[in-house]
Write the structure tokens for this entry.
Amino acid sequence: MLLFLISCFSVILVSKSFFRPFGTWKRDMRMQASPWFLGEVSRFLISWSARSKAARGFLHFLTSSLKKNGNGKAENVMVEGLEGEEYTLLDLPDLALECILERLSPFQLCSMAAVCRSLSERCSSDHLWEKHMKQKWGRLVGNAAYQQWQCYIASRNRAKLQESKRGKGLLGYFSIFSDKMWNNRSRENEIVTEQRNSLPVDSVKAWYLAIETGKLRFPAQVYNRENGQVGFMLSCYDAELSYDSSTDTFIARYSAPGRRPTIEDNIEWNRIRAPAVDVPAHVLHVSDCLHDLKPGDHIEVQWRRNRDFPYGWWYGVVGHLESCTGQESHCQCHLNDSVVLEFKQYAPSSRWRQTIVNRRDHREVGNGADGFYGGIRKLCNENEISTWKSLWPTSTLE
């Protein structure tokens, strides 16, 4: 009963009274609450909690204004009416404290971590942040994004190594001294805070915050690139994405050989996905579904304008051969070596309406006029199919 009481009140009070919006977490990650309000709550709980030491410790946490001193320790304020004893949140049993931390949001964990070193270590635990990583970024972060994160870590380590080498010798010491003198005193508290909350560069929390703050660009794919330009309707292209927390949207950078990257901003979540296959955008995907394709199957096919450009994935369906009547009971198309790929977003008279590939020996096929068709994916996931259908153009394309 006590554990249930602690958990419920901790979630309600911590989430609604103590924390500021995430956008200000870097500037000020201290917990604040109304002393009068918390005092009233504490008196109510004291009369109801039957003098449990853990409950008294938790009540002290609620009624205390936690302040940090220069050593990063929490200064404790005595709770009146508790036999003169002092208790803090850290006096709670490990299970109760863990139950509280597991219910905190990412910005609440960041705020809690700023209280003292002990809570900083607990609130930076990988197992707490893995849940948040999976909930927010799991759908978008794949193997390619993880590799990008490893490269980001390596680049940061190299930068730190170079900085440490720079600091050696008389000139290095003079440079460090001049840098410190140049910084004004208003930056001192921020520097102390950043040092106090420094993270291992390979922690899950560091990864989460690198994406959340837009510092890490990660590879993903964008549906209907360039704001749904007609030439990209019902396609999905590789891009480097960065997150903009102020608008809850993404910024994409599309690369092209010999050209400056194309930038697109304000991309909504429903237009983003993790790469469907672990194949670079310039590499032909080896199809493993050709022998199973039959009319009505939903597919994605690689296509590019010319061999210098990266592939994009285009949505289509398997159609019937011209010699077939289209009646399911008499259809023999699945036995033929030729497979019709149909793109019904285009008008029947359009040259982009369909193409034919060989299921026995399919490689990249095409020409300079019609582009080049590459690997094929059969779509079996209903969520993938419904996503494509939700992006269907409002009018038929030519």
